[in-house]
Amino acid sequence: MVAPTRAIATDVGADLLQMKDVTMKFGGLTALDAVTFEIRRGEILGLIGPNGAGKTTCFNAMTGVYKPTSGDVIFDGRPLGALKRNQITRRGIARTFQNIRLFSEMTALENVVVGTDARHRTSVPGALFRSSRHRREEKDAIERSMALLEFVGVGGRATEKARNLPYGDQRRLEIARALATEPKLLCLDEPAAGFNPAEKAALMDLIRKIRDDGYTVLLIEHDMRLVMGVTDRIVVLEFGKKIAEGAPAEIRDNPAVIAAYLGVPDDASA
Ligand SMILES: Nc1ncnc2c1ncn2[C@@H]1O[C@H](COP(=O)(O)OP(=O)(O)OP(=O)(O)O)[C@@H](O)[C@H]1O
User: Fold this and answer.
1) Domains of the chain by residue range
2) In sequence order, which ranges of 121-213 are alpha helices (DSSP H)?
3) What tens digit of pLDDT does each residue of 199-220 get?
4) Taking Cα atoms as reference points, which of 106, 81, 97 lies closest to residue 20?
5) Coil vs helix vs strand at 245
6) Can you tell me whether residue 161 is helix, strand or coil?
7) Does the C-beta of 52 come closer than 6 Å to ligand 1?
């Protein structure tokens, strides 16, 4: 199997992204209240908290869907400021969504090739007249996309329409598509939603493999076993505020976290 070649960063452990006093208000509702934390290069960081705690809003502030009401998101040493979503993708942040968003009538391979477009440098005339550079980029994109499909474990379904893939493979395909943009930071929003225990275990292996391949991963996930089993550190939000941060074992034993989140039975937060 061809693994997508990634240079392992030499500065593993240094900050890749910093949320600095990020506040996000929607009318009278404060979804994020002066939230500060960092994501370190080469780590798997878990972002957890009860429903409505502000996790997805964090993702949205990091990926340019929302501009924070105040505060800064610093990525790779520079503030995201007023960058648009596609510019942020080019800077190196990719995400998947809680609800799968694939091009259902396109093949699995085509869905991933679309992701590589964020990296293409051919001009519009170059693409229209199929310049040799454009053809080379297209060939590279297809090869890399195939390698990514194999990397996430759906290489055998490359030519099938996305909508015909089993649910678990669609989730893996979404991850391949996000990786196709060659991100430094991959944000996964509840990637295990709807998975059975075997699929969850396989997903944990994939997340570790992604990290071992040189990516940094931010993971929103409600499944505590998965979060505790795969992350290096965890940040906990409640009502838009950060209430705890630390290694999984520390978070598990933190009374504020137990009160806010772990004390809630699984089916109460579904
Ligand atoms: N565009 C918006 N307009 C108004 N309110 C919003 C908007 N987006 C989020 N909110 C509110 O902000 C709060 C935080 O929502 P968010 O989706 O970030 O929480 P979450 O932790 O991701 O929750 P869940 O686990 O349910 O996905 C919620 O009260 C939500 O209703």
Assistant:
1) 1-92+183-270, 104-182
2) 124-128, 132-152, 167-179, 197-212
3) 999 999 999 999 999 999 999 9
4) 81
5) strand
6) strand
7) yes
Q: Is 46's C-beta closer than 6 angstroms to any atom of ligand 1? A: no
Distance 270 CA to ligand 1 centre (A): 15
- By CB atoms closer than 10 A (0-12, 13-18, 19+), residue 138 is middle
Q: Are 19 and 36 in contact (CB under 8 A)?
A: yes
Q: Distance between CA 1 and CA 203 in Å, rounded? A: 18
Q: Is 264 in the pocket of ligand 1 (CB under 6 A)?
A: no
pLDDT in tens, 89-116: 999 999 998 777 888 889 999 999 988 8
Q: State the CATH architecture for 1-92+183-270.
A: 3-Layer(aba) Sandwich (3.40)
Backbone φ, ψ for residue 194 (5° rounding): 80, 5
CB 146 within 8 Å of CB 109? yes
Contact (Cβ atoms closer than 8 angstroms) between residue 62 and residue 235: no
H-helix segments, the chain: 55-62, 85-91, 108-116, 124-128, 132-152, 167-179, 197-212, 224-230, 248-253, 255-257
